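I hope you will forgive my troubling you with a question about protein structure. The full record is reproduced below for your convenience:

——
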Amino acid sequence: MKKTIIWIDLVTAPDVPFFNTIINEIKKQDTFELIITGRKFLHVPELSKKYNLHSILFIDCFYGKKFWDKCLALVIRSLQLFLFGLKNRCDIAFSFASRSQTIAAWLLRRKIVNMFDYEGGELRMINALSHHILIPPQFKQLTQFSKPNLESKIIYYPELKESLYAHDFEVNPGELEQANISLEKVIITIRMNSTFAHYQGIKTKSIDLELIEYISSKKDVQVIVFPRYQKQFEHIQQLASKNENIILLEKTINGQNLIWHSDGVISGGGSMIREAVCLGTPAYDIFHGHIGVVESMLINSKQVTKLRSQNDFSSIKLTKSKKHQKQFDDNVLLSFIVESLKKLS
């Protein structure tokens, strides 16, 4: 029987653990083969290596944060992926909203399956070119996804995307101790906001730094900071040289393991916040762009606390949080995605 060839493109760091779980499951199936590409940007290559995802073609595509720089990067990477696709035939191009892969696969006349969980980005091209779109059920309330030309493409997936892989790790306190993180102190993990993404707000940069300085000034608290870019890294490195409570990790560690051991996770929305929710770690959102319906649901249900300004910093609980035994349930979302790919083959 001919196998369905699935082409996966890894675009951002959270794509790696998410697709790693899917890839491991797909490899167990007799009906699929895989080809994988990745974006040579941020932590995608090093995370892929850590997850033992080999045979990946990494393609660089970052040329700056200005609009026309981004357009140039999109065109160049789309062309590179198009050439890759000519040499490596696939049946389904599957990604978490990879614009470059979507364009390349459309030019190659391949079946395109996209998945996303935030409606605030630029999605018109992805919606138009995709044959199928996997989105969370919260999107049902959005009029932009009730249009006739989209309704036939939409597949609503269950649960948070992060539930697919959040529990797929070993609780390993030794990994944190090797990184000089004290398990006796309060551990607050902060993922700095993106200053390049087109959906970001203008206030995010200042609240990041105010927050790091506020928390790191407290006794018996360690702040694990994850900068996104070199300039952010250099700035935090200066702060860390004067404050031993600020920790910049020298090597990549398992993100879920760190979140599990953290007493609070702070980020500008996105995957890290939802991973914390899945693992039962207190989560705080400092995103100042358009708040998506998934994030709104988590905030309204008090699973996430919103930090809008310095006045909200006192709501952060700087105490050791009680840890509960991990609960391993049947991975509903993983089964749903694999079965959906079979049906779409």
In short: The two ends are 13 Å apart (CA to CA). The chain has 13 helices and 13 strands.
